[in-house]
Design a protein that fits this description.
heterodimer; A: alpha/beta; 10 helices; globular; B: alpha/beta; Rossmann fold; 2 domains; seven-stranded mixed sheet; five-stranded mixed sheet; 12 strands; 20% strand
Chain lengths: 268, 308
């Protein structure tokens, strides 16, 4: 097994342990985003423990801030966050339920209120253009999150300002807290909507590492417009009883469920 | 008649943007009205129009600020504070980002545009956000000083600005210390804490009352948060009758801020002059002030009622 796969496996295990330990949190969407964050942080973003405290580097905004466990676990795996992941959601912890940028180096925006992170990412990309640096801004949106009108305000502005330094993953797992996204609020076709907003849209399997890499490579070549990586993912990826089950959006596994989940992730 | 505070803002910002290359200005399709057009003319590369999308503008402001810029974000107070309130709270104030939200056309002095554009809740809803500083300057000199002041602080700030031309209270070389309330006229027994254009109305009322032998202290409270508790207490302790005057709902604004100081260690009866929890209407600004009992005559009448 390559190092990256091992890192991603560790990220998934820590997501499960953190959420189980806190008896709260969002395991489904976090597990589903682990492959994308693994590729981003270990192969694409120029972020490391030495530069993480500053902004003179690539940045990532987790607009779907409830998936904070995947971000914390990734920063931990990368050696940037050196604290105790098991303090997640506890009193006096830096690991807030939804991320606070001032508590953890490498958390680039405080998010959690859906639709807001994407605007901040647009602002960062505009700032990078103004500063004439080559840093890239990455962000991740949820598909349920796209019901927020602010997402489309941000999408419009990103195209208007020709932000080819902005690359946004749409984590398309088809589920949200109340059920199937098509049942709660059918936002299809999201890819066509972003195309209509003048974005470059790339379709991938969000669990296929080579497809993630190829999309990130292609996004770097796009000029004059932002890129949306339309990533089909499985909510709860890696844990049979969580996969594609919206009931695991915001519920923690108990002790037995955790043991089984860790076993399954180990076998991935 | 002097300038509108939004005009003073535009002039101050046009100067600042040239002096400080870390300043960026955002607007939501109201550059001519908010007067950020002056800054755009002075430095077009650091002025960004976000279109009619105030929530997105607020988020973009957070992105710029997190990248090391000092951001001035402007639209009408109704939309800057109202529509984008939760973005201000979660994307700017909670992460403590260096954004100055400058809301123009505040209060009923918007005039003819009417209720949809008359922000009478903005002081209350900005003041209640932890870490947010709130300023409400009254004239050209004070506005320019406030803008220079907030440009130097690193905290999130809300600056309340008006559409209509107002009389000058101060000369342009006046020195300001925004950590302190400012005594404009010194009287005895009666003190009026006023903010924004109500400072002018209070001063006019004080002049009229002086002719009738009633000497009124007028205190300009430009920085409503953090409020100068010590300065407010000194006034409370040294006067028998306390009045607050604001072009804002009497719930949650300056009157409430003064009352919060008062209840801690110097309980007083406080007469609050402001909008009494209702909507105003379209009309010329001066006529609105009279109808909604915010003008100098109404203030003078209240003072006479109190002291009789």
């Amino acid at each position: 097994m390559g190092d990256l796969k091992l890192h991603i496996k560790n990220i998934r295990k820590n997501i499960l342990k953190m959420v189980a330990n806190a008896s709260s949190g969002h395991p489904g969407g976090s597990l589903g985003a682990a492959d994308i964050l693994g590729v981003l942080y270990f192969e694409y973003m120029d972020i490391n423990e030495d530069n993480a405290a500053g902004v003179d580097r690539d940045r990532f905004v987790l607009s779907k801030g409830h998936a904070s466990p995947v971000l914390y676990a990734t920063l931990y795996e990368k050696g940037i966050f050196k604290g105790d992941l098991m303090t997640f959601r506890q009193i006096d912890s830096k690991l807030q339920g939804h991320p606070n940028m001032n508590y953890v180096d490498g958390v680039d925006m405080s998010t959690g209120s859906l639709g807001q992170g994407i605007s901040a990412a647009v602002g960062m990309a505009m700032a990078n253009k103004l500063s004439k640096n080559d840093h890239r801004v990455y962000a991740m949106l949820g598909d349920g999150e796209c019901a927020e009108g602010q997402v489309w305000e941000a999408a419009m502005a990103a195209a208007h300002y020709k932000l080819d330094n902005l690359c946004v993953f749409l984590d398309l797992n088809g589920l949200q807290i109340d059920g199937n996204t098509v049942d709660v609020m059918d936002s299809r076709p999201l890819d066509k909507k972003f195309e209509a907003f003048n974005w470059e849209v790339i379709h991938i399997d969000g669990h296929n590492l080579d497809e993630i890499r190829a999309a990130l490579d292609k996004a770097k070549e796009v000029k004059g417009k932002p890129t949306l990586i339309f990533a089909n993912t499985i909510k709860g990826k890696g844990v049979s009883f969580m996969e594609n089950n919206y009931a695991w959006h915001g519920v923690a596994p108990n002790k037995e469920q955790l043991a089984q989940a860790l076993e399954e992730v180990e076998a991935m | 008649m002097g300038k509108a505070t939004r005009e003073a803002y535009g002039e101050a910002l046009a100067k600042l943007i040239v002096e400080d290359e870390k300043i960026v200005v955002l607007d939501a399709d109201l550059t001519g009205s908010t007067k950020t057009a002056d800054a755009k003319k002075a430095c077009p590369e650091r002025h960004f129009n976000i279109g009619i999308a105030e929530c997105n503008m607020t988020g973009i402001a957070a992105g710029f600020a997190s990248s090391g810029y000092t951001v001035f974000a402007s639209t009408f107070a109704m939309f800057a504070a109202g529509r984008a309130w939760e973005q201000v709270r979660n994307s700017i104030a909670y992460p403590n980002l260096n954004v100055k939200i400058c809301g123009t056309h505040a209060g009923i002095a918007v005039g003819e545009d009417g209720v949809s554009h008359q922000a009478i809740e903005d002081i209350a809803i900005m003041r209640v956000i932890p870490g947010m500083e709130v300023y409400s300057p009254c004239d050209e000199a004070e506005t320019k000083a406030v803008i220079n002041h907030v440009a130097k602080t690193k905290n999130p700030c809300y600056v309340r600005l008006g559409r209509s031309k107002v009389d000058d209270v101060y000369s342009l070389d006046e020195e300001f210390d925004f950590t302190k309330v400012k005594v404009v006229t010194k009287g005895e027994k009666v003190a009026i804490f006023a903010t924004g254009l109500m400072v002018q109305e209070a001063v006019k009322a004080a002049k009229a009352l002086e002719e009738e032998g009633i000497k009124v202290t007028v205190v300009d409270v430009c920085c409503i948060k953090p409020i100068d508790e010590k300065g407010v207490l000194e006034i409370l302790k040294s006067h028998d009758y306390i009045i607050t005057a604001e072009e804002h709902n009497v719930i949650g604004g300056l009157g409430s801020a003064i009352a919060e100081v008062s209840v801690k260690s110097c309980p007083k009866n406080i007469k609050m002059i402001g909008i009494y929890d209702r909507y105003a209407e379209s009309g010329p600004f001066n006529e609105l002030l009279v109808k909604y009992e915010l003008d100098a005559n109404s203030i003078a009448k209240e003072v006479k009622e109190l002291v009789k």
